[in-house]
Design a protein that fits this description.
35% helix; 20% strand; six-stranded mixed β-sheet; Aminopeptidase; alpha+beta
Length: 488
């Protein structure tokens, strides 16, 4: 039997790349600059999002730009279900000779909150382009997605490349756990038709030197742990040694979840078996990325003037395979906020009555988030030290996602795209973040192939200060999106 030969791409790769790069330079970057200026915080971070109108402004910007594109047959609608955040839904008919299935392209327009620590002259709503990077909140996570999707479709059509029907779903509460999305999926699924491929442009990249496909996503439980020991603050000289510190009680409760020395989440309820295929992909990615897996973070100690970690900085482990598995297939707990702690300049000698901590528990992809959330609540609230009043209230629980096996045509298309754009094969790795949409899509369209990719490469710092979009890489991811659509 002779080996199967790679398919000849139906497009001219150089022309495709050139056209997309020009549209980004002449049009898309300007739109994203305007988008960064909009403080379109997700509803959990802006409870008055309707009245403030920032999400609506971001939706209008994307809608107006999309409708101005010369995409034949494009229909676009801002869909609004009663009491829910809006979504942008577009539909582009297939060209003659294309597959009868549908490609579903996904993105979101809502953003994380401001965060402190931005460089002087930079800020979440202050777009700055420096050394080929657009700084500001949301450009890479995930405002670029709708622009990239329609640029890719238009570039194929200009070249006369047959392509399947493409629909787009761009939501506005992803950063709040996509709680409105199930209702929209239910409402819009009949209009989507037979979805054969899902492309989600909301993920990361191990480097900027090849195309990366995300093979899994962790789940997430967000909630607030509250510890009350007094009804009001009292003099620490009077109460110290008699009344236990609410902060110390909180520390004891957190020890029920993770080891404060190593960060390992100890209870078996928060672990799952790691498939051998994912271990092998971790080994392959580790060979590509090596020590950059930990060097890319802005370590506070042992750093140069740019905040780049030197070789002697000390993460918990330097084994690149274990680092990949730690951030993709193992649970991790973080304290992301606190109440009850006055600013240092206002802190007197007072035994505080209450400590509240915002907890973020990343979960292995195969773990059910609702079950994990209930387990956290039981572990934290049962038998409280010193009979303190303890509560754990979780406001979101999103189950992770493990990708189905890729069809040979999709794997081949990814490699062809990566070789054409970077001169290297595509690479595969799980991501530590959560895209609730992916689990929902897997349940709604179980036969569909799924490609999760994105532009969040090293130091892009999504959700944090100095978040940026690498423009050269974004152009190539856009081109790769076009190539994959054409390969279907």
């Amino acid at each position: 039997m002779t080996a199967r030969q790679p398919l000849t791409p139906p497009y001219n790769a150089a022309q495709l790349q050139g056209r997309i790069a020009r549209q980004w330079d002449e049009d898309v970057v300007r739109q994203l600059v305007d988008y960064v200026r909009i403080p379109a915080k997700s509803p959990h971070f802006d409870p008055r999002w309707r009245e403030n109108g920032h999400i609506e402004k971001a939706v209008r910007l994307a809608r107006d730009w999309a409708l101005a594109q010369p995409v034949a047959g494009l229909e676009l609608e801002v869909v609004r279900l009663e009491g829910r955040t809006p979504v942008v839904f577009f539909d582009v008919p297939a060209t003659p000779g294309a597959s009868g299935e549908t490609v579903l392209l996904y993105g979101h327009l809502d953003k994380q909150p401001e965060m402190t620590g931005w460089r002087t002259g930079f800020g979440p709503w202050t777009p700055v382009i420096e050394e080929g990077r657009l700084y500001g909140r949301g450009g890479a996570d995930d405002g670029y997605a709708i622009f990239a999707a329609l640029c890719a479709i238009l570039a194929l059509d200009v070249q006369g490349v047959p392509r399947p029907r493409c629909v787009g779903l761009v939501e506005t509460c992803e950063e709040s756990g996509s709680y409105d999305l199930p209702a929209y999926l239910e409402a819009l699924a009949p209009r989507m038709g037979s979805v054969g491929l899902v492309i989600a442009l909301d993920s990361g990249a191990g480097n900027y030197e090849q195309l990366w496909a995300t093979t899994s996503l962790r789940g997430l439980v967000n909630g607030t742990l509250s510890v009350n020991i007094l009804t009001e603050g009292v003099h620490s000289g009077d109460a110290g040694g008699v009344v236990p510190s609410s902060f110390r009680i909180a520390r004891q409760l957190l020890d029920r979840l993770d080891d404060s020395r190593t960060g390992v989440v100890r209870p078996g309820e928060f672990a799952c078996a790691i498939p051998e295929e994912r271990r092998e992909q971790a080994r392959q990615a580790a060979r590509i990325l090596g020590d950059t897996l930990w060097q890319r973070f802005p370590w506070a100690s042992c750093c140069d003037n740019q905040g780049t970690a030197r070789l002697f900085a000390q993460p918990s482990t330097k084994d690149p395979v274990e680092l990949i598995l730690n951030r993709t297939w193992r649970a991790a707990l973080a304290v992301t906020g606190a109440d009850g702690l006055p600013a240092i300049e206002h802190a007197g000698n007072v035994q505080r009555p209450r400590t509240a901590l915002k907890l973020s528990m990343r979960l292995p992809p195969a773990l059910d988030a609702e079950t994990a959330a209930r387990t956290m609540k039981t572990m934290l609230e049962s038998d409280p030290p010193y009979s303190a009043v303890v509560s754990f209230d979780y406001d979101s629980a999103a189950t992770g996602w493990n990708a189905p096996s890729a069809a040979p045509w999709l794997s081949e298309a990814l490699d062809q795209a990566s070789h054409a754009l970077f001169g290297k094969p595509a690479a595969y790795m799980g991501e530590g973040g959560t895209i609730p949409f992916m689990g929902m899509l897997g349940a709604k369209f179980p036969q569909a192939q799924i490609l999760v990719t994105g532009v969040l490469g090293p130091r892009s710092n999504a959700h944090g200060p100095n978040e940026f979009l690498d423009l050269a890489y974004a152009k190539k991811v856009t081109t790769a999106t076009a190539m994959v659509i054409a390969a279907m």
